[in-house]
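Re-run with default settings, no changes from the original entry. Doing this only to confirm the output is reproducible before filing.
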Amino acid sequence: MNNDSETPQSKPVVETTAEQVSTVVSDEALLFDDSPEKEQRAELATAVATLKGDLEAQTKTRDALLAKSSLTMEQARQVTDEHIDRLHRYNDIKDAGQMLFGKLAELKGKTVKEIYKDYNVDIED
């Protein structure tokens, strides 16, 4: 009898990825873990799964919007980068304005809210 032949006790080979093994090991560890961190790890795992789902949904939405537009991915990134740069400039200018209102309020002995009112500026602006 040849030792290389399959015996009745041999089992078929099942290919398993490292990710699948890691998932099984971590799931089994959670089952037998009675530590207080078990609940936190479970909550984090749920949060990560939720975030992955959100990312997938946002990616699909982005891809659908790009398909509808005439922009390539690179052009869309360029438009986004320009918009972000403009928002940074806007925020820098707004911060400078708020500092000026603060200094003016200090010089006049008023609150910043009163200075905003004096200049007809909405406090939420």
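The CA atoms of residues 75 and 81 lie 10 Å apart. The longest helix spans residues 73-108.
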